[in-house]
Specification:
This protein is mostly helical and about 150 residues long. The chain has helices at about 15-20, 25-35, 40-45, 50-65, 85-90, 90-105; strands at about 65-70, 80-85. The protein has a domain at about 15-105: Winged helix-like DNA-binding domain superfamily/Winged helix DNA-binding domain (Arc Repressor Mutant, subunit A, Orthogonal Bundle). Strands 1-2 form a two-stranded antiparallel ribbon.
Protein backbone atom coordinates (compact mmCIF):
# COMPACT_ATOMS: atom_id res chain seq x y z
CA UNK A 1 0.00 0.00 0.00
CA UNK A 2 1.55 3.37 -1.01
CA UNK A 3 2.24 5.98 1.62
CA UNK A 4 -0.56 8.51 1.35
CA UNK A 5 0.08 11.81 3.09
CA UNK A 6 -2.51 12.43 5.76
CA UNK A 7 -3.66 15.99 6.26
CA UNK A 8 -3.11 17.11 9.83
CA UNK A 9 -6.28 17.33 11.87
CA UNK A 10 -7.00 20.96 12.71
CA UNK A 11 -8.17 21.26 16.31
CA UNK A 12 -8.80 25.02 16.20
CA UNK A 13 -12.45 25.95 15.48
CA UNK A 14 -11.35 29.33 14.07
CA UNK A 15 -9.00 27.67 11.57
CA UNK A 16 -11.66 25.17 10.47
CA UNK A 17 -14.20 27.95 10.04
CA UNK A 18 -11.81 30.12 8.03
CA UNK A 19 -10.92 27.13 5.84
CA UNK A 20 -14.61 26.70 5.05
CA UNK A 21 -15.99 30.24 4.78
CA UNK A 22 -13.09 32.64 5.29
CA UNK A 23 -12.78 33.51 1.62
CA UNK A 24 -14.04 36.99 0.62
CA UNK A 25 -16.44 35.67 -2.01
CA UNK A 26 -17.91 32.99 0.25
CA UNK A 27 -18.70 35.50 2.99
CA UNK A 28 -20.19 37.98 0.53
CA UNK A 29 -22.34 35.25 -1.03
CA UNK A 30 -23.66 34.36 2.43
CA UNK A 31 -24.23 38.07 3.15
CA UNK A 32 -26.21 38.42 -0.08
CA UNK A 33 -28.20 35.27 0.69
CA UNK A 34 -29.23 36.85 4.00
CA UNK A 35 -30.25 39.93 2.01
CA UNK A 36 -32.55 37.82 -0.18
CA UNK A 37 -30.37 37.01 -3.18
CA UNK A 38 -31.06 33.50 -4.50
CA UNK A 39 -30.23 33.27 -8.21
CA UNK A 40 -26.78 32.80 -9.76
CA UNK A 41 -27.22 35.84 -12.03
CA UNK A 42 -28.28 38.01 -9.09
CA UNK A 43 -25.23 36.98 -7.04
CA UNK A 44 -23.03 37.73 -10.04
CA UNK A 45 -24.63 41.12 -10.62
CA UNK A 46 -24.39 42.09 -6.94
CA UNK A 47 -20.82 40.91 -6.40
CA UNK A 48 -19.22 41.49 -9.80
CA UNK A 49 -17.39 38.17 -9.42
CA UNK A 50 -16.28 36.03 -12.35
CA UNK A 51 -18.72 33.24 -13.24
CA UNK A 52 -16.20 30.46 -12.62
CA UNK A 53 -15.30 31.77 -9.16
CA UNK A 54 -18.96 32.25 -8.24
CA UNK A 55 -19.84 28.75 -9.45
CA UNK A 56 -16.96 27.28 -7.43
CA UNK A 57 -17.88 29.13 -4.21
CA UNK A 58 -21.58 28.26 -4.55
CA UNK A 59 -20.63 24.61 -5.06
CA UNK A 60 -18.42 24.69 -1.96
CA UNK A 61 -21.15 26.34 0.13
CA UNK A 62 -23.68 23.72 -1.01
CA UNK A 63 -21.22 20.89 -0.24
CA UNK A 64 -20.66 22.41 3.21
CA UNK A 65 -24.45 22.49 3.83
CA UNK A 66 -24.44 26.28 4.20
CA UNK A 67 -26.57 26.72 1.09
CA UNK A 68 -28.90 24.34 -0.66
CA UNK A 69 -30.42 24.45 -4.11
CA UNK A 70 -34.05 24.17 -5.05
CA UNK A 71 -35.97 24.66 -8.28
CA UNK A 72 -37.15 28.22 -8.89
CA UNK A 73 -40.57 26.86 -9.86
CA UNK A 74 -42.11 23.42 -10.20
CA UNK A 75 -40.61 21.72 -13.24
CA UNK A 76 -38.14 24.55 -13.84
CA UNK A 77 -34.56 23.81 -14.84
CA UNK A 78 -33.46 26.96 -13.01
CA UNK A 79 -32.14 26.58 -9.47
CA UNK A 80 -31.94 29.05 -6.63
CA UNK A 81 -29.67 29.04 -3.62
CA UNK A 82 -31.07 29.33 -0.11
CA UNK A 83 -29.48 29.25 3.30
CA UNK A 84 -29.75 26.04 5.27
CA UNK A 85 -30.19 26.00 9.05
CA UNK A 86 -26.39 25.68 9.26
CA UNK A 87 -26.02 28.71 7.01
CA UNK A 88 -28.53 30.71 9.07
CA UNK A 89 -26.30 30.16 12.10
CA UNK A 90 -23.66 32.33 10.39
CA UNK A 91 -25.80 35.42 11.05
CA UNK A 92 -23.99 36.41 14.28
CA UNK A 93 -20.64 36.16 12.47
CA UNK A 94 -21.81 38.55 9.76
CA UNK A 95 -23.25 40.93 12.36
CA UNK A 96 -19.92 40.87 14.23
CA UNK A 97 -17.97 41.62 11.03
CA UNK A 98 -20.41 44.41 10.16
CA UNK A 99 -20.21 45.99 13.58
CA UNK A 100 -16.42 45.77 13.66
CA UNK A 101 -16.26 47.36 10.20
CA UNK A 102 -18.66 50.14 11.19
CA UNK A 103 -16.53 51.00 14.21
CA UNK A 104 -13.08 50.55 12.70
CA UNK A 105 -13.24 51.23 8.96
CA UNK A 106 -15.48 54.27 8.57
CA UNK A 107 -14.69 57.86 9.53
CA UNK A 108 -17.02 59.62 11.96
CA UNK A 109 -20.18 60.52 10.05
CA UNK A 110 -19.17 58.59 6.92
CA UNK A 111 -22.18 57.02 5.22
CA UNK A 112 -22.54 53.24 5.22
CA UNK A 113 -25.27 50.65 5.00
CA UNK A 114 -27.06 49.77 8.21
CA UNK A 115 -28.60 46.58 9.53
CA UNK A 116 -31.86 47.25 11.33
CA UNK A 117 -34.42 45.17 13.17
CA UNK A 118 -37.49 45.16 10.90
CA UNK A 119 -39.79 45.09 13.93
CA UNK A 120 -38.41 48.28 15.49
CA UNK A 121 -36.39 50.03 12.76
CA UNK A 122 -33.52 50.24 15.25
CA UNK A 123 -29.93 49.21 14.59
CA UNK A 124 -28.77 46.19 16.54
CA UNK A 125 -27.02 46.48 19.88
CA UNK A 126 -23.29 45.76 19.71
CA UNK A 127 -22.50 42.05 19.98
CA UNK A 128 -20.61 41.31 23.15
CA UNK A 129 -19.27 37.95 24.24
CA UNK A 130 -20.82 36.91 27.52
CA UNK A 131 -20.42 34.21 30.11
CA UNK A 132 -23.15 31.59 30.32
CA UNK A 133 -24.86 33.70 32.99
CA UNK A 134 -24.86 36.79 30.74
CA UNK A 135 -21.96 38.81 32.15
CA UNK A 136 -19.79 40.57 29.54
CA UNK A 137 -16.38 38.97 29.05
CA UNK A 138 -13.20 40.49 27.56
CA UNK A 139 -10.50 38.66 25.61
CA UNK A 140 -8.15 39.11 28.59
CA UNK A 141 -10.63 37.14 30.70
CA UNK A 142 -10.41 34.04 28.48
CA UNK A 143 -7.92 31.38 27.49
CA UNK A 144 -7.83 28.69 24.83
CA UNK A 145 -7.29 25.18 26.14
CA UNK A 146 -5.32 23.34 23.47
CA UNK A 147 -6.01 19.74 22.56
CA UNK A 148 -3.23 17.45 23.67
CA UNK A 149 -1.73 15.17 21.02
Amino acid sequence: MPNTPVEPVEHCPVARSVDLIGDRWSLLIVRDAFDGTHRFSDFQRSLGVARNILADRLRQLVQADILTTRPVAAGSAYQEYVLTARGERLFPLLVALRQWGEGQLFAEGEMHSQLVDTRTGQTLAPLTPTTRDGAPVLAADTQVIKVEA
